[in-house]
Amino acid sequence: MTTWEALAVLAAGLGAGTINTIVGSGTLITFPVLLAVGLPPVTANVSNTLGLVPGSLSGAFGYRRELTGQRPRILLFGTAALLGGAAGAVLLIALPSRAFDTIVPVLVGIALVLVVAQPRLAAALRARRARTGTAPRRHGGPVLFTGLLLASVYGGYFGAAQGVLYLSMAGLVLDESLQRLNALKNVLTLLVNGVAAVLFLFVAHFDWTAVALLATGSALGGRIGATLGRRLPPTALRTVIVLVGVVAIVQLVR
């Protein structure tokens, strides 16, 4: 890897760490750069997962204030993240990517619709509960758990736009601010990337130079993303999510 290529990978890690903390989809920055510097696709994917773990940790730490009171939720959904992330990592090693390549743009598109419609849908759900006298399930029930589990499988496999999937599902059924949901998303992403990275260390090929450069850049980017993301009002944050999601769909279907 030349000096310019190393700087490009480092800059990609910085950008990915920043955007991952705010919304997700940083892989859409790093993965093409890793391919451009000559890494084979699977090696690039594995190196990318390993290199972005420090960024996920940095971003989750930056959002620690918004995690207050969410420990039971983290323990519950963290189980889904760990199981799904491990399953996705195994699928990456064992299976071709055609099935995921086909379904993921559709999933991201649906997630974006939910993100845009989330305020109205949540208000409609609250009104319906008021009419029927029912209380919302504290942690969203089995449907949300299953949805987050499946999103985590995808995250362990590739991960681009997994944050959009998390935010759209959690925002629909949980009565929380978007910033607190974003903090939860950062923890789940950390767990998915972390468990996948542990498996990859033992069974997959990766490039240590690329991993080190991505790790350095993403760790700094995670802190930047936490600072910027926490200052965005809900409407602005939702706009960023939609814009990033649209870019993700365009990249995934090319």
TrEMBL record:
It comes from Streptomyces catenulae. It comes from the Bacteria. It is found in: Cell membrane. Belongs to the 4-toluene sulfonate uptake permease (TSUP) (TC 2.A.102) family. It is a multi-pass membrane protein. It holds the Pfam family TauE. The chain crosses the membrane at residues 31-53, 74-96, 102-122, 143-167, 187-214, 235-253. This is Probable membrane transporter protein. Keywords: Cell membrane, Membrane, Transmembrane, Transmembrane helix, Transport.
